[in-house]
Amino acid sequence: MKAFKFYAAHEPLRLEEVPIPKLKEDEVLVKVRASGVCGSDLNYRRGKARPYKTPIILGHEISGTVEEMGEKVEGLEVGERVLVHYIISCGRCAQCMRGNDNRCRRRISIGAHVDGGFAEYVAIPARNAFKLPSNLTFEEGAIIGCAVSTPFHALLSGGFKAGDSVAVFGLGGIGIHAVMWARTLGAGLIIGVDVVDFKLELAKELGADVTVNPKVDDPVEVIRDLTDGWGVDLALECAGVPETVNYTLNSIRGKSRYETGKAILIALQPGPVKVEWIREGLVTMPGDHTMDDLRRILTLAERGRIDLTKTITHRLPFLELNRALDILEGQTENVVKVVVTQQQ
Question: What's the chain's Rg over C-alpha atoms?
C-alpha cells in the first residue's frame, strides 16, 4: 500500500510502498477514505514536537470502511463506514474505569506512537472503530476524530455550564469548533478572537456574538466592556502563541483579584505559563477527548445539532498530502480545516 512516512522535522513526508498491516485477533483493517490534517502533524514537521517513534506514518483524524476483521471481532461488518478514535487505552486501569480513557496509564496514540492514517490502510483495535452515521461524509467523520471532539471535551472538562460567557482565542480547526460547541451547548455570550478577517466572519456565521481582531482592538478591553468588568467565565486558548496565552489569562480577570473565571489552554503551549492570581478560578490543559465524548458528538452530529459542512475549507487528493501541510502552515489562503481524501 502507499503511505506517507515522517522521518525528520523540516522535511517533506516521504511517499513509500509499505506492506498492508497484519491484523491481530481483536483488530480491524480500515481502508482510509479521509484524513484530516491536524496542527499536531504540522508541529512534527516544524520540529515543535516529536512523535514517539520514527519513521512513522502520521495522521490521527481518520475515517474509512472496514476492509477486514480479526477473528474475535464482533459488532462490525466488512464494508461498514467508521471513524477512528485515535487513543488506544487499556480499558482496565483506574482512569479507564472512570471513563477517562484519554488519561489511561498505558495509552498510546495512533499517528504518534503507532502508524496512523496517512496511508491507504490502517489497523486499529476494533473498539476504536466508531460507526459513522450515513448522513455524515467521510470528511466530516475524519475531523470529528480530533478537531471537533477536542474543544467539546475542553468545554465540558473545564466546567462549562449553559449561560456561561466564553471567549475563544485562535479560530483555526480547534477554535472554530469551540465556537460552534459553545453555541450548541448554550453559551450566553460567545466572543471569537483572531487576526484573520475570514475566520472572524466565519465565526460570526457559526455562532460568535462578537468577534475581535487584536490588530484593531484590545480583546481584553472588549471582553471587560461586554461583561461589566467581570471577564468571561471560560476562555479557550487555541493558538499556542504568547500573545493569545496572555489574552486568555487576562480575559478571565475582573476588577478585583477575587473575580476570576477559567482559562482552558488547548494548544501546544509556547513555554511555561505564569499565573499570578486565580482565586477559585482554574487554569487547565485538557487532553484530547474520551470515547464517551465521541459517542455523544456522533449523536449530536447525526441529529444535525452541529453543522460541519462549512469548516472544511480545503479538500485535496491523498497524494497531495505535503501540499495540504503547506497550505495549513502557510495560511496564505482562507484556511480552517484541510482534509485529504482517497477514492473507494
Answer: 20
- Dist. CA 33–CA 142, nearest whole Å: 9
- Whether the Cβ atoms of residue 147 and residue 61 lie closer than 8 Å to each other: yes
Grid cell for residue 126: 476494533
- The answer to whether 119 and 156 have CB atoms below 8 angstroms apart is no
Is pTM, for the whole model, over 0.85? yes
Q: Choose among 325, 242, 251, 317: nearest CA to 281.
A: 251
Can you tell me the distance from the alpha carbon of 289 to that of 93, in angstroms, rounded to the nearest whole number?
17
Domains of the chain with CATH codes: 2-148+289-341 (3.90.180.10), 159-284 (3.40.50.720)
Residue the block writes with cell 485538557: 286
Helix, strand, coil tally for the chain in percent (to 5): 30, 25, 45
DSSP assignment of 73-106 equals --S--TT-EEEE--EE--S-SHHHHTT-GGG-TT
Which triple of cell numbers denotes residue 105? 496509564
Name the residue among 342, 339, 343, 275 with its Cα closest to residue 59.
339
How many whole angstroms separate alpha carbon 269 and alpha carbon 127?
Answer: 31
Structure confidence by residue, pLDDT tens digits, 159-218: 999 999 999 999 999 999 999 999 999 999 999 999 999 999 999 999 999 999 999 999
State the first-to-last Cα distance of the chain, in angstroms, to the nearest integer: 14
Residues 29 and 20: beta-carbon distance below 8 Å: yes
3-state secondary structure of 46: helix
Q: Are 292 and 157 in contact (CB under 8 A)?
A: no
Collapsed DSSP state (helix, strand, coil) of residue 245: helix
Strand partners, 264: 236, 284
Closest of 140, 136, 181 to residue 162, by C-alpha: 181
As a whole number of angstroms, the distance between CA 255 and CA 220 comes to: 12
In tens, the pLDDT along 33-73 reads: 999 999 999 999 999 999 999 999 999 999 999 999 999 99
The residue length of the chain stands at 344
